[in-house]
Amino acid sequence: MVLIQYQMEQNRKNKKHTFNNFIINNLLLVTGLAMMLSGLVMQIGFHMGGHQMDAPGFQTQTIPYEQLRAIDITKIVCGFNYSDWSTIHKVAIVLLTLLMIYHTYVHWKWYKGVITKHLIGRNRQVIILSVLFILVAVTGLIPWFIDLTGGPGTLRMHFIEIHDKITLILIVLLILHIIKRLKWFGSTFEKMSGLDAK
From CA 167, how far away is CA 173, in angstroms rounded? Predict the structure, then answer.
């Protein structure tokens, strides 16, 4: 009787763990796509030309960031202006960062095992993805704080330039990671549907 109760409790915990993982991974997917889409729209949709590195005032750091990057802030893309897309991008970044912190916390034993058991070579893609995400988050958040504190547009621009280039690599690795996990999404969904039917 005690063994049956223990097995039932373990099954309940496993179902809860599977459900939580499924929800978190889907939220990571949605917020990640929102972050990538809004970032690409800001990079591609609003640029009028090259950077104005030789513009008067560049050296004195008096030119606004948008002017330095030749961004048309009056343009509308898919019903939203540059400020709206910037807000969407920032909200997506904050949500994705919080979800990634939780995701890392839940899988901390795995990360710890990979490091202590010297399994980094076998899990190179996930480790690189994790490191790149941290770099993208840091280089994305610093310009935000520079803007909030009224810092120079040039410094903000340099960080965003680094952020943009690292993000392109991150997007490629994220797509590969999602493709690799598609089978998991499908099998987990079927498993959960089967549990609901019962």
Answer: 10
Taking Cα atoms as reference points, which of 17, 15, 29 lies closest to residue 109? 17
* Residue with the two structure tokens 């949605």: 30
User: What tens digit of pLDDT does each residue of 173-196 get?
Assistant: 888 888 887 777 777 767 666 655
Please give the backbone phi and psi of residue 80, each rounded to the nearest 5 degrees, phi first: -125, 145
Domain ranges of the chain: 2-106+127-197
- pTM > 0.70: no
What SS3 state is found at 71?
strand
Q: Which of 190, 188, 198, 195 is nearest to 20 (CA)?
A: 188
Residue 9 is given by DSSP the state H
Q: Which residues have a Cβ under 8 Å from the Cβ of 152 and sit 6 or more positions away?
A: 61, 146
